[in-house]
Structures are given as C-alpha cells and as structure tokens.
Design goal:
Length: 175
Amino acid sequence: DLAVPPDVAIVPVFDEPTLRLAAEIDSTIFDWPAMTEAQAASELEEIQRGLATGQWRVLRMVAMLDDEAVGTAGATLAGPALRLWGAGVLPGARGRGAYRAMLDARLRWGLSEGATMALVKGRVVTSAPVLRRAGFVSYGQERCWQWTALAAAPPHLPPRSPPLPLPKDPTLGGL
C-alpha cells in the first residue's frame, strides 16, 4: 500500500492540453527545453493510436493537487516489464503524495496489462526512499557525467584538432 492521499488526482495524457501540461512540468523539473511542435505531434499521434485501438504501450500522466498540475510521470510496456520513467513533482508540491500516486497508478496499469516486473532508475535523494518503501530493490547505481562543450579550445590544444586517424585494421588491433 502506497498510502496515496485522496486529494491527489491522476489524469492520463489523452489530449493536447494535458500533454502540454506534462511537458511544461518536465521542462521545469528536469531543466529541459520546451517541447517542440514536432515532438508534440509525434506524442499526440501515439496517443490517438492508443485511443483508437485500445492498445497501449506507453502511458503518460499528470498529478493534480487542488486543481493544479504538480507532477508528471510515464511508463512503457516492454514484454513482461513495465519501464517507469520521467517521474517528477514540482518542488512546492513535494511531500504531499503526488509521486506516490503516480507510482501507484503506473504499477496498477502495468499489472492490468500483464506486466510481471517493473524497472526504474530513481534519484537517490528524491525518488529512492519512496521506491524502497514501495518494495523496489536497488541493483546498483548509475553515475551520470556531464560535459559542457568549451566555447574556445583550452590553451594546450590547437583551436581545431585534426580528426584522429582510424586504423586500417577493422579489429582495432593496432591501438
């Protein structure tokens, strides 16, 4: 039992306004660029296909508190696995059950579609405690590295280095 508070409403993303809400929350939480028109069109096409056929492989949702969109999450069915992704809650709404409600909704959907396991990558500080309480077990940690391209080459490198020569041996034995 995830003890989902009754005042959290989960709204599936079935239309453009709700998709735009989800994308706006994603941009805020994850510091992503705004959704492009092409991305919106592609996601809406997938949503329409699911509505028309009743065959869902991907589900996206928005969590509402006091009639305000505060979180978003998604899940993808891949055979017997339910892959959970993109869950986040706006900082001002954290600690009120929106994340738990979205986790509960995604797990229930996965079970109804025949999933026998769920996979997720969660942030240690924010998601991991909730996931552990829900019964998830950690199988390791992933380190994420970020490299910001330099505007100018460092002084010890030429401004434009020539490409590295590729070995003629396709097995790369010469390196």
